Amino acid sequence: MSKLKIDTIAAVSTPAGRSAISLIRVSGPDTFKILKKMFITGGKKTFPLPYSVYFGSVIEPETGLVADKCLVTTFPAPRSYTGEDLAEVSTHGNPLVVSRVMQLLLKHGARAAEAGEFTRRAFLNGKMDLLEVEAVSQLLSANTSSQARLALNQLDGLPSQFVARIRDRIMHHLVQLEASLNFPEDAIEAIDEHLLAREIKKILAELEIFARNARSGALVADGLKIALLGRPNSGKSSLMNYMLGRDRAIVTEIAGTTRDTLEETLMVGEYPVKIIDTAGMRQPGDRIEAIGIERTSKAADEAFALIGVFDGSQPVKAEDEIVLDRLRQSGKPVIAVLNKSDLPQQINPEIFAGLRQLSVSALKGQGLPELQKAISQIIAESGLSGYEEMILLGAQQSVALDKALAALERADRGIGNIYQDMLAIDLEEAVRELGRVNGETVDVNTLDLIFERFCIGK
Ligand code: GDP
To answer: Which pLDDT tens digit goes with each residue over 388-413?
Structure first.
């Protein structure tokens, strides 16, 4: 890793505003030198002993004025978050005090940290790999406890160990292949292609499971999207409000009032589900409605599952048939909801033959438990991996994983049919791309992209 210009950085790690305490982090080779200039400990304990907490005063050295009375915790390298000398200064949570302490740190030699710079240093110092970095990022941005749990699992390092191991195994075969290609006359054993083919198949199978777990992880991290489809006035907006337990979508008896898609997240069991209310499906009355209907199609395409909403109090209309066709042709998990069960039912239930169907009254609040159960069932049947197995990847990591898989598939198909040097190229690509998944071969530009998503102070 590059040892270029390692300076000492400082940042406020807690949110802006007033609070009981704020935390300022300082990391880098001059951490304790800088603190010694401006922090006077209250007790007799020498500063800084490793992993100790000190109560004392931050002072302005020129005037002797006290900027704050605070706690300083010491984490000498390498056993710190960043792997460098690190200190955490817990100040009183007043923005004036915090900014004064920050100013003093900067004046005495620290530099204001950039977004994600502490975690970037942790990565560069080998404290965590890119999968763990991604887990930290997702943990900070998680909106539900299940998303947080998923991120915390990954911080345990098992996915990291898996990728490192798989990469080592491919590397091992690549080295042998290269050796036999480059030094054919030396006493190096010729490659047993049968054995290699078996090994590649095994590796590919394991990596495919990993990729499937990453797809599940992405679905859960983003929230499983479920689109509500139905003709205008079937009660989609009412159903959305009923599911959310509050008014989010506008409900009117005027057809075509939902002209755009609305998204809201709710929990079904342990899964975050994003319900998408769409514009009603029918021949558009005007240009704006036409755009709304286009968006409906897009939302339906992107959704994990569809809920068709039908007005049970009326006979089937041509517009309902459009919705039904859409449901049947989607190839996705589907639930047909017959709404308005509080009114006399006129719809012919036979048209839903073969579909999972249930009745609700969004207006009177009846049928939600059954609907939640049906959603839980389609999630359970969808082949999502269990929580403990799911993997979280960033965008660049997903692309790299796909490339690694594609390269291994080429190697798998080609072995026995292509020259060994072509095979070596495929294995080399798989090694390189897997290195991008866990960060062993990542380049500086990609790192910039990854860490700019972090907040300052992390
Ligand atoms: P959307 O166009 O599909 O979003 O339908 P809305 O949710 O705006 O509802 C259309 C009309 O049907 C409104 O007047 C609602 O009050 C009414 N409505 C919705 N759900 C029910 C229900 O379960 N029972 C009854 N009786 N009316 C409902």
So the answer is: 889 999 888 999 999 999 999 999 99
Omega prior to 48 cis, within 30 of 0:
yes
- Report d(CA 122, CA 117) in Å as an integer: 9
The whole model's pTM is what?
Answer: 0.75
* Greatest CA separation for the chain: 88
Average pLDDT on 144-156 reads: 86
Name the residue of 277, 307, 319, 363 whose CB sits within 8 Å of the most ligand 1 atoms, as the mutation to test its pocket. Answer: 363
Q: Which residue has the tokens 């403990």?
A: 388
Which residue in the block uniquely carries the two structure tokens 């800084």? 48
Label residue 431 exposed, middle or buried (CB < 10 Å: 0-12, 13-18, 19+). Answer: buried
Pinpoint the alpha helices (H) of 7-129. Answer: 31-38, 95-107, 117-124
Ligand 1 pocket member 236 (CB < 6 A): yes
Closest CA relative to residue 264, chosen from 276, 249, 280? 276
Pocket test for ligand 1, best of 233, 243, 260, 364 (most atoms within 8 A of CB): 233
What confidence tens digit (pLDDT) does each residue in 286-314 have?
666 666 667 778 888 889 999 999 999 99
**Is pLDDT above 60 for 33?**
yes
Please check the confidence at residue 320 and state whether its pLDDT lies above 70: yes
Instruction: State the DSSP string of 317-351.
Output: -HHHHHHHHHHHHS-S-EEEEEE-TTSPP-S-GGG
Give the atom of ligand 1 at the shortest distance from the alpha carbon of 241.
7
Residue nearest to atom 17 of ligand 1 (CA): 235
